[in-house]
Amino acid sequence: MAGSQKKITYSAIAERSGISIATISRVINNSSNVKDDTRKKVIEAMKSLGYDTSTLEANTSKTNDLIIFNIPSLDNPFYSLIIQGAKAAAQRNGYNMLINEDPIDDRSFDSFTALLKKTNAAGLITTNCIARSTLLRLNAILPLVQCCECIDGLNIPFVTIDDVSAARNAVEYLISLGKKRIAFINGPIEYKYSQDRLKGYLQALEQAKLEKDPDIIIQLQEIDYDMAVSAATQLLNSAQRPDAFFASSDVYAAAAIKASRRASLRVPEDIAIVGFDNIGLSSLCTPSITTVNQPKFQLGLLSCEMLIKRINAEQIPIQSMYMDTELIVRETTQKSLRS
Amino acid sequence: MAGSQKKITYSAIAERSGISIATISRVINNSSNVKDDTRKKVIEAMKSLGYDTSTLEANTSKTNDLIIFNIPSLDNPFYSLIIQGAKAAAQRNGYNMLINEDPIDDRSFDSFTALLKKTNAAGLITTNCIARSTLLRLNAILPLVQCCECIDGLNIPFVTIDDVSAARNAVEYLISLGKKRIAFINGPIEYKYSQDRLKGYLQALEQAKLEKDPDIIIQLQEIDYDMAVSAATQLLNSAQRPDAFFASSDVYAAAAIKASRRASLRVPEDIAIVGFDNIGLSSLCTPSITTVNQPKFQLGLLSCEMLIKRINAEQIPIQSMYMDTELIVRETTQKSLRS
């Protein structure tokens, strides 16, 4: 607020305009969630009380209704449905949404926040892997919600899934099929989801008293199909080959199918495969991929609704959410009548 | 330019500041592509010559360096690499880029242009299918470049491929393999690319004196895998089944693989398949898909470079570009030694 506005008392304006103090506060703080009519009434009341309303009037026409959705990469089709969900919530609430795929770290922080300022962004949803300190700095600048990838305990809300139990369930399913040597193809370990899926995988092996062999855990630095094919092929050609793959991404599961073909092994008879995410690819593949479904549309939708709540009210309790996942059984684990 | 600036002669400012006339022109036209130091020097020189620089000084801190990349849908992985190319060009030139997936038509025009204004966008690249009149209205508002999907003859630049000849080449290749009854799975026909690929397909059949049978042209309303599987399966179960599919998208080609499996036909022995775009899926599929590669990264990069030229100079000749495609032969047309 400009210095000239210091003498405002909200109660006087409320009395004059008949509008609640909460709404008056939003007008004075240039929140976007005030109807034009109401905004005008508040400004009129302020004028009649002798307050300087020039700043408020200048801002009337440029309410900030833009939400930025930040993702690590458009390459990963996983984000497409999440963004659609967020967009549905944005549109329903009169917000615009634009997508940004920049990393957010110390190096990019200034240019990224300059972009938020220039575009007059009202809030930010991110699925990126961001350092704790950077998240806190961002959250001090504008309302922020973490989607999927998140850090708990920062007083920054998130909407995500329970990766540990989802991974554990998937591996337990492979064990229930009689698999004894289950390899794991995992993604970039700086992501919390990779750390948690690894935990879930190890928990399932432990509970079933199966050997935890580090030699059959493939840890990749990016979601890269070719690298996954090479690594899986090597494993299948080793002396003690696995009888199943659990993959922390459907892209890796597709790579495991290719590797099995190259090693002349049948899927699912010789090698069972379970992926993660249920992206379009998983049903397009032949054989189609058994996978852990994430409620992608809902993850996006609820993240965006939570963000809009934060934009419209500075003080709301932080409520984070864990959403349910489900295992979708397809041809990489179960021989179907028709392929 | 404001009226008060009319008397400026660039040569006087160039002489005083030691800065080139081209750069001075960019400063005066508030182009974002000028270093802050240089901008200050030009303004100082103008001041010392008695020019009114108030408008320029006001604009110094809010250079508009935002490019909006508009796409029909994030669902189609085809756009991912195009956007990466555009982003590379944007970053190299000091621009930010945000992605928008709204349709642009009469109904959305006002809200879309309001968004461009609110975010202070400097220019727009679009891969959307937009009506002629709407493109012209947009082009009057801000610098615009059409990427891939385009309308020629509007004095609005575009960077695209020659879809007619790319499709003709692909079908000629299938004919060279001895295929006589080549079905075509085509996308939304309002898109110019669909119209052109259909033209190319028909030209190839005509030149080879093969029958043009409308019964084996599947025309779909969207890029939908399931719909394509159903339609292709139906065709393969008909009395006169095709011996090949040409698909105007790799997603359709993946659907043709699935349909062939369902009809217990071998790919490529019984059914050869050629896709289009060379998206990641085409090499991930088993068998991998023979397809027409589009230079996606380059399409994006050159579109963005063209846009930045337009942003920085109001009057540049409209130079559109057709980029080369190539056929990438994989397992859906050629039995490989290792699958």
Automatic annotation (TrEMBL), chains A, B:
Recorded coiled-coil stretches: none
Domain HTH lacI-type residues, every copy: 8-62
Domain named HTH cro/C1-type: residues: 5-56
Record keywords: DNA-binding, Transcription, Transcription regulation
SUPFAM superfamilies: lambda repressor-like DNA-binding domains, Periplasmic binding protein-like I
Gene3D superfamilies per UniProt: 3.40.50.2300, lambda repressor-like DNA-binding domains
Keyword Disulfide bond: no
GO molecular function: DNA-binding transcription factor activity; transcription cis-regulatory region binding
Keyword Transcription regulation found: yes
Protein name: LacI family DNA-binding transcriptional regulator
